[in-house]
Amino acid sequence: MPTQSDDKRQAAREVIDILQEISILLNTKLDRTELSLCVSLIENGVNPDALATVIKDLRREVELSSRSPNESSE
Q1: pLDDT tens-digit map of 37-58
Q2: Cβ atoms of residues 35 and 20 within 8 Å
Q3: Rounded Cα gap, residues 41 and 60, in angstroms
Q4: What sign results for the dihedral spanned by CA atoms 43, 44, 45, 51?
Q5: Which of 33, 45, 53, 65 pairs with 39 at a CA distance of 20 to 30 A?
Q6: What tens digit of pLDDT does each residue of 7-36 get?
Q7: Phi, psi of 42 (to 5 degrees)
């Protein structure tokens, strides 16, 4: 017989499954772990808009730092 905690885990998995499908449709490039972390941060009070801005800024920085020196000077 499933316990209440098993039911909660199953519900959380279903939520992440749905969010992953939405993420794929929106081409967010977030995997299940990243989505789970984002949900957890938002549930703990992080502003969703601020979180989205941080993710975009981090991606931009990674993109800039991964370019070769010749590419960034063009």
Answers
A1: 999 999 999 999 999 999 999 9
A2: yes
A3: 21
A4: negative
A5: 65
A6: 888 998 999 999 999 999 999 999 999 999
A7: -65, -40
